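Practice problem: predict the structure.
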Amino acid sequence: MSIEELFGYVSAIVVGLVIGLAGGGGSILTVPIFVYVFHIPTVLATTYSLFVVGSTSFVGSINHLWKRRVNLRVTLAFALPSFVSVYLSRRFLVPFLPDPLVQTGTFVLPKSDAILYFFALVMIIAARAMIRSDRPEQGEAADGRPRYRSLSLDGLAVGLLTGTIGAGGGFLIVPMLVLMAGLPVHRAVATSVFIIAINSFVGFLGDIHHTTLDWNFLLPFTGLSISGIFVGMYLANFVAPDKLKKGFGWFVLIVALYMISKEIL
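Answer:
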């Protein structure tokens, strides 16, 4: 095993660690790890990301469900529309995007590059939210009455994002659950992990019809990520997640800028 691959496997633990601590965020590292460390094609990397993120989040959500931290009614309102958009985007949108995506004169933009540019943009947005700790204590649902229509519409948007780039979208889901469902932050994190788990698996199911998977690679990587979420959930009892998220946000920003420079140069 090369040093580069060893770094990739260690990074798998970090992915689970961040999901366990913050209810999201770690998943946006999986695609860059697969593409730049393990040199996996972009579209296949998003498929692998969905499996890793789904498996890791599902294991973490079992603990949250056992302790009754997950709001199932809010989960249904947000997740059902999200399931539809993530499945349709993986089953039809991503496979049928033209390649190259844009071709004008001498300018050619391959589909894989377009997905990576979009992914890097999402990473920058996520990094900004983490650095600023954009996690409101209350919002339009401060009265405790969830805004189910708004939750459903946002679920559609997050599902499309998840399906397109293979990230769970937890950095978006947690603030939405606080703002529009009136959930305390700790319950928003728990509910987010559960939504991410099912969302990712639904997207993965949309891929298996037209994708060949390397299980000998995928399962060990996923196992390491799952070990990371246990560490993250344990540390969440002692460490303020927002402090760690700020540092992680700067790291995500650096990775995003590296991705953009790698694609341009």
